[in-house]
């Protein structure tokens, strides 16, 4: 019975938007890099105000993590912020300052 309840909860969980999936991929714990096309797509998404808010809150949340084991996510997040500064919207650039 409990296993059926867990399955039901899994289907009720909100699906990630394509942007959220890209953010998770770009800031994953995996030991390989992220394609520049993914980073550029995220940077271009900052031109939409709602997407910009989502992206920036996601990035700041990762940077506030205090676990030593999360260093790879922090490095990937900083790389994404660098791409946003180069190719993102003015609003996103101002928020990084």
UniProtKB/TrEMBL annotation:
List residues of the ENTH domain: 11-97
Alphabetically, the GO molecular function entries are:
clathrin binding; phospholipid binding
Going by the entry's taxonomy, the superkingdom of the source organism is recorded as: Eukaryota
Gene3D superfamilies reported for this sequence: 1.25.40.90
A single Gene Ontology CC annotation of this entry is:
plasma membrane
Sorted alphabetically, the Gene Ontology BP terms of this entry are: endocytosis
What the entry lists under SUPFAM superfamilies is as follows:
ENTH/VHS domain
What PANTHER family does the entry give?
CLATHRIN INTERACTOR 1 (PTHR12276:SF45), EPSIN/ENT-RELATED (PTHR12276)
**Any idea what this protein is called?**
ENTH domain-containing protein
Q: Give the species this sequence originates from.
A: Effrenium voratum
